[in-house]
Amino acid sequence: MRELLFLLLPVAVWYGWIMGRNSVRNAQRKQSSILSKHYYKGLNFLLSDQPDKAVDTLIKMISLNNDTVETHIAMGNFFRHRGELDRAIRIHQNLVSRDELLDTQRENALSELGKDYFMAGFLERAENSFIKLLDSDKHRSAAQSHLFEIYQTTKEWDKSIELAERMLAVDSSQQHVAMQLAHFYCEKAQKFIKSNDFSSAYPYLRKAVDVDSYAVRPWLMLGRVYIEQEKFRDAMSALNEVPERDLSWFSEAVPLLEQAAEKLQDDALLIKSIEPHWQVCATSYLAKVKLIAKQENTNVAASTLLEQLKKTPTMRGFKTLLSLYVTADDASEDDVQTSLVLLKNLVEEQIKQRPRYRCTNCGFSGRQIYWLCPSCKHWSVVKPIKGLDGE
Question: Do residues 89 and 114 touch, judged by C-beta distance below 8 A?
Answer without folding.
Answer: no
